[in-house]
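ok so for the tutorial part 2 we go from a plain amino acid sequence to predicted structure tokens. step 1 is just haveing the sequence, like this:
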Amino acid sequence: MRKIKLYIAVSLDGYIATPDGGVEWLNQFQISGNEDYGYKELYQSIDSVLMGGRTYRDIIGFGCEWPYKDKVSYIISRNEVNLTPAAEVHFITENIIYNVERLKKQEGKDIWLVGGGELVSMLMNADLIDEMQLCYLPIVLGQGFALFPNKPKETVWKLISSKSFDSGAMLISYSK
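step 2 — the prediction. this is what the tokens look like for a chain of 176 residues:
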């Protein structure tokens, strides 16, 4: 069975975006040289990405080419509006837990849970997240979109690894 891996950047105080949904604060921690924050290894281990509708629209709003065109993208959304017609994008608009369980049972590589926080909490409450790779960046945002909104249920995780970077970032990996 495929694993769902949450890989996400988070501020020291637990936020993944500013109150307006902005992620510009990530720009000061660019991937370069050997400071890829575990991204390359993660990206090679997956063949699919899973994200919420707001995250999907935010990525489109950056005005860049769809960054996951070599992967199959699954968007959890109320609306099925494909803003990336050249990419393989599928929408899950109902029976979310059932459909994500089906994705896990398909043949293939693992699935990257890109975000956002509401989807993370929903999948955590359904015991569908197998690994978490949290890249803590040395910044305090003070407010914004929390990594774990909507009160996820209590779960215990095992430390797989931790790695620090010259930028002050820390990648901490956990499994169930």
